[in-house]
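ok so heres the complex, three chains, lmk if somethin looks off
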Amino acid sequence: MKIFNLPDLGEGLTDAEVVEWYVKPGDEVTIDTPLVSVETAKAVVDIPSPRSGQITRLFGEVGDIIETGKPLVEFEEEEPSDTGTVVGKVETSDEKLEEKAVVIDRKKSARVKATPAVRALARRLDVDLSIVSPSGRDGTVTVADVERVAKRLKDLGPPELLRSARRTMAVTMGRAQAEVAPATIMDDADIDHWPKDFDVTVRLARAMSVACKAEPSLNAWYDGHSMGRRVLEKIDIAIAVDTPDGLFVPVLRDVANRNDDDLRSGIDCLKIDVRARTIPPDEMRAYTITLSNYGTIAGRYAVPVVVPPTVAIVGAGRIENRVIPVDTEIEIHRILPLTLTFDHRAVTGGEAGRFLMTMISDLEGFER
Amino acid sequence: MKQSGHSEHAKQVAAFEITFSRYLDADGNVVNQPLPRWASDKSATLPIYRAMVLCRTFDRKALNLQRTGQLGTYGSPLGQEAIGASVVSVMREEDVLVPSYREFSAQLHRGVSMQELLLYWGGDERGSDFQGPREDFPICVPIATHVCHAAGIATAFKYRKQDRVAVCFIGDGATSKGDFYEALNVAGVWQLPLVVIVSNNQWAISVPRNKQSAAQTLAQKSIAAGVLCEQVDGNDAIAVRAASQNAIDRARSGGGPYLIEALTYRLGDHTTADDASRYRDTEEVEKQKQLDPIKRLRSYLSNAELWSEEDECALVQECEQKVEQAVKDYLNTPAQPAQAIFDYLYAELPASLQTQYDEVVSNNHG
Amino acid sequence: MAEITLVEAVNLALAREMENDPNVVVLGEDVGVDGGVFRATVGLLEKFGSERVLDTPLAETMIGGIAVGMAAQGLRPVAEIQFMGFIYPTIDHIVSHASRLRNRTRGRLSCPMVLRAPYGGGIGAPEHHSESTEALFAHIPGLRVVIPSSPARAYGLLLAAIRDPDPVIFLEPKRIYRLVKQEVEDNGETLPLDVCFVLRPGTDITIVTWGAMTHESLQAAEQLQEQGISAEVIDVATLKPLDMDTILDSVEKTGRCVIVHEAARSGGWGAEIAAQLAEHGLLNLLAPVQRVTGYDTVMPLFRLEDKYMPSTERIVNTAQSVMEFA
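and the predicted structre for the whole thing:
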């Protein structure tokens, strides 16, 4: 209520005299706060506030007589009285609801279709569901499918778990595949004028060193995550070495600043150490470009794998006699097939082409 | 009442009469003689008055507690106190009270504690685990459903040949409900020891009595079930007690069910969340205050020299102390642990619920 | 030992327990003089008198409510609702009071009442007499919902229901009231509440059902056997509280589950069982859980009722497709 009337103080009392006000206009009171002391014929009593609120007016001064039921005190505003319910409390807030319609994006799941029991069975039998051809309805893998594959695998025996070099290769090549954007240029170097029993590997390393100076982009490290490139001064060539234990890639350090004899003895030492398995891990790390002389085994051209963070790998194929035109004559020359695979994220086609041409010029232009 | 039947040849096969009684007027003066003999007996009258005053003192405090957030939604019986106290004063301990949700003078006079009532409205089931009247029914919220329960209780009494009575309190709104009619009907045909008290406080939330039913009195609804009834001034404790005594004794001795419509007025809002000024005239309420049952009985007792000023002061003080203590006890009762929601769901918790129980315990560990 | 029908078993149990316990009182419409419209209470009035067998006025709400009051006073009222179609007026008393009286008085008062009703379709009855809405009650905390599927189980479970200290809704599948006879010994022995009964062992697929549908489910199991499919048939019996352990153990073995109930599909009690299978038995499932149920339509009048109710054929077909899944 806004105006609080003098309540019936009982016993048929019709009025009361104001003895003392405990509040004044402007005061904030709560329920039961004593407002005023009044005297009736029988006693002096305090009258508590029936509600909370701010007092705006007192109807009477000390000594005044106020009749029962007549105004005593006025409050600032109506107590909000409509709770909008008859039990409990219905919360309100000023929150405005903003909603947008959502459409569920219906994508076809790439998940293998198999019931939980079939999945559990596959786990128990150690079968990779992705290799199981489903025969059930809607391409679902059935118990029979899992059991069939499990039997097949069992008949084949347990797989050999990759270790050391083979494991490293699997990891490295897998990562390379995921990260690198490879592109390849292939060409030939005419090395007919080379003496027989020539040290091909050293010559290749030398040619690569010259090409790196001409096109430093290919002697660099690239970090795909930060998209940052380090073009490197020192040229450390990793040489792919095939062994019964797998692929090893020892590093020939600082090729640009070593003479041929030094390079040769360096390569020999690396090979000995690799075969003896005494090569320290550090000697297989931190290389700047790779040479794969696969031609010593077989193959002309290849598309070898660029291993990050390097950005280039040179492949040298089998030297062979080929029929080539010289002016208008046909001649047979010894040809060295070359492949350059580069990471196109960090190296342009032009840089790669020029690198390869520089190599070829160096190889062809060599004179004892 | 209008004559029913379609022609003048139709002869009357049934008629009924509803009586209204009162002894005291609004000021407590005796207006109908003779008074019952016990009306001059302190031991018969003072307990009623004390119960009414205690109820009102409790009610005031309960409203304050609600407004200060220490009690949930609460429905005040302000203005209706005479009915419950008077009826209960003639019940025996072994009778059973089946209350509605607004009969605290009845429940308190039966021995339900104020702390129990506060616990109930404070949202705690322990408030219905009465330590006093162990067989009384708890507060009933679904309107009028408890009249059927009372009929069932009365059936058990009759079946066991016990001379106990089931006393059920309902409001005016409840008399519109099917449960009310169905229960009265079976009480009538089975002659159950059931007494139904209709506290007609003129309002069912916002629906006034004249919109609740076209029946001239609510009492006469029992006639349709073959059950006797009468109407009394519900604010006249003497009249209510007299009528109840008659009805309850009669039921107890195999005389069958009875219905008493006690006329009163709901001076407060329906509940603390309701604002009655939305739908009724405050002037009307002010007028009704003149018919206050406590004032009336006090006048009578005072005039009959059964009650003095000192008695009044002492009673007021006593009631306030009792209420304060009950409030303290209530406020000092911590809530039950979370897993109490599983206790008493069945006589024994089924195995199928153990997981849920454990989850609640572990979520609320501490 | 007599060979009796399901409804006779109900009668036998009532008589047995009224003999044992003077607190047991039977009430309902036409239960006394007429012996109940299905004769479930025949002979009780003569044997125990009109104070214990009460012909009530026509007022289902009152029947539900009066039973609450009687039970609170320590009697064991067994109230009959003539057909499940007329049970709805009692729902207020069952849900608002019976199910929560113990809880809301912290155990001071309790409600050991039984509300029994014939339920389900298939007897060519007029409309409203073929209801199967047991899920409404099974949803309510504090209640027990029990559905017998054989004379022996009717006898043993009804005894258990009457002796149980909490309210029980006892639904009797009227279509099989007299369809089979079984030897039932009137020994006053109860069968356990809150457990499933395995009616037929099997290894390939689990059929979970209750009420009259156990009949069709067992027939389906026979037919499946001829096709080399071994079906385990489980009678849930007590829908609430639900014995999921038995069902989970079975599905762990078979990996496949078909739930059969007459009630409408959505929100039927089969949905609860399927949800719990997904929660606790997922890794054992070789195929999705299937439900064979009444359709999500109003129970048709009797000319079409056998098109609505699950048939043996539907159960067999569903089981076969589950077997073919994986």
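quick notes: Chain B has a mean pLDDT of 95. thats all i got rn
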